[in-house]
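Incident log, support desk, overnight shift.

02:14 A customer reports that sequence design results differ from what the structure should imply. Their input is reproduced verbatim below. On-call engineer (initials T.W.) acknowledged and began investigating.
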């Protein structure tokens, strides 16, 4: 009975991981990079690297631009620049649930060169850039991950012993298995935390029936009530003027008792419009949702939100643990390293499945399930880093004045990924797809700091180190380290490729 139960759990672990493994890998990569989304935003805007954010944000300039760009928007939201990301970001929210974000110079308030930025990876992480459908797919992947984690613990008789076993020089399948086991044990509590908290954040979207019933279908009202969001009914009369947000800054900061980092205007074209100020999330594990509200025409104080309820504090604490916006760089680096471990765990598990069935994969026709798994392993696990490297390189090479520049960067990402998938199909028989894509990734990653040095004045590694700009410098350093790591992996794959060739033994 015991053996049959473990066999059932092994079957469930295998298929729970295999069915959703590639999607989970994409989600994990996106989330890992999103740990430093603001730093990536900053790195991808080299025109601002010589600019220091002002002590007092230029909110009025950003709101003036928003008023001109979208006078009838439902809301304008301006986030001040900071040490993690210099640009002010102005987001225009519309009644049809769409929105548009513009990066602005922190002093002049003028738009700067467009870029996909680190927010591309943040969005990729939580909804795959596919709206509600993507959000539900991510939730499904999270549930599968929990199943895989629980069954993985059950079936591993030597779970802690395996943690100390990694045979890098062993046969390829053995190395993949050791990598899977070591990374799984290393980050096991973290993976449970991430999977559970990720599902919890969107619980009202995944299971809205209870709240929808209590609030007559208006789920958003539940959040507004929990956060003590202040809103006045629209009057139907046009707003006559917009009071200076800058003049309210000091008062708002005093009432909140913490630094103000953003301002918003709701019902922008109506006389009921309000100006709201809030602080950042980095001071708290739980999300900081406190706001102070003013009349948008007269500047008159209206409301200071009360501390959230205990239930909402618990909910936002779980969300805060997932987002890793607290604790500064130490926590972000910890999450980043554990995220990489999670990627290794997923890639190792999928490759172990293939390696155990190597003979059947080798003899399988092109359109078989075995071949599909093998090709997707190469195309996703090796192809996604290649696509990311291509996207980051394009950020430096595309003209700053280019229209739709962010979309062009995303286009490069998609094209590079599609190319890797195609190469995996074409070169699989030659056993060289892993080697080729890893080598190409290494070349691109090492090229980025070099090109950065050649074409920028304030953004290359020596310049950022000279002014102690550690956020910018760290990205170039990580790119160099990653490039060397992928070069080493390409070399190992080359050896394996030679070893698999027919004929006499080959040496490299």
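02:41 Re-run completed on a clean worker. Output:
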């Amino acid at each position: 009975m015991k053996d049959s139960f473990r066999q059932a759990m092994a079957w469930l672990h295998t298929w729970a991981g295999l069915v959703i493994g590639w999607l989970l890998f994409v989600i994990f990569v996106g989330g890992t990079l999103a740990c430093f989304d603001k730093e990536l935003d900053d790195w991808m805007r080299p025109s601002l690297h010589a600019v220091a954010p002002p002590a007092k944000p230029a909110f009025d300039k950003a709101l003036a631009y928003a008023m001109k760009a979208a006078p009838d928007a439902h809301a304008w939201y301006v986030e001040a620049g900071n040490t993690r990301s210099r640009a002010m970001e102005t987001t225009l929210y519309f009644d049809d649930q769409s929105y548009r974000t513009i990066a602005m110079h922190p002093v002049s308030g003028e738009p700067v060169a467009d870029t996909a930025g680190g927010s591309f990876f943040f969005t990729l992480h939580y909804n795959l850039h596919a709206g509600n459908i993507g959000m539900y797919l991510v939730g499904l992947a999270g549930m599968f991950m929990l199943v895989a984690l629980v069954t993985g613990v059950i079936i591993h008789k030597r779970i802690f012993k395996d943690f100390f076993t990694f045979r890098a020089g062993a046969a390829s399948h053995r190395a993949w298995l050791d990598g899977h086991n070591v990374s799984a044990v290393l980050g096991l509590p973290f993976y449970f935390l991430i999977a559970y908290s990720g599902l919890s954040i969107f619980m009202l979207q995944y299971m809205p029936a209870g709240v929808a019933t209590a609030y007559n279908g208006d789920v958003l009202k539940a959040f507004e009530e929990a956060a003590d969001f202040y809103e006045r009914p629209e009057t139907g009369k046009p707003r006559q003027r917009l009071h200076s947000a800058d003049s309210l800054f000091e008062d708002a900061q005093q009432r909140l008792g913490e630094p103000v980092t953003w301002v918003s205007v709701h019902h922008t074209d109506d006389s009921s419009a309000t100006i709201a100020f809030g602080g950042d999330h980095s001071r708290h594990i739980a999300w900081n949702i406190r706001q102070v509200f003013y009349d948008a025409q007269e500047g008159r104080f209206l409301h200071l939100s009360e501390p959230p309820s205990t239930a909402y504090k618990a909910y936002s604490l779980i969300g805060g643990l997932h987002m890793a916006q607290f604790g500064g760089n130490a926590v972000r680096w910890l999450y980043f390293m554990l995220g990489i471990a999670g990627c290794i765990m997923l890639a190792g598990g999928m490759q172990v499945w293939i390696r155990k069935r190597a003979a059947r994969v080798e003899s399988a026709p092109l359109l078989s399930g075995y071949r599909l798994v093998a090709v997707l392993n190469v195309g996703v696990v090796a192809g996604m880093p290649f696509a990311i490297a291509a996207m980051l390189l394009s950020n430096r090479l595309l003209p700053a004045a280019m229209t739709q520049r962010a979309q062009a960067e995303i286009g490069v990402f998609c094209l590079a990924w599609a190319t890797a998938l195609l190469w995996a199909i074409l070169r699989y028989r030659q056993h060289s797809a892993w080697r080729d894509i890893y080598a190409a990734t290494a070349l691109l990653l090492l090229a980025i700091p070099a090109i950065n040095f050649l074409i920028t004045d304030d953004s290359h590694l020596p310049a950022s180190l000279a002014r102690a700009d550690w956020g910018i410098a760290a990205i170039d350093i990580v790119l160099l380290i990653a490039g060397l790591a992928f070069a080493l992996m390409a070399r190992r794959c080359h050896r394996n490729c030679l070893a698999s060739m027919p004929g006499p033994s080959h040496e490299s």
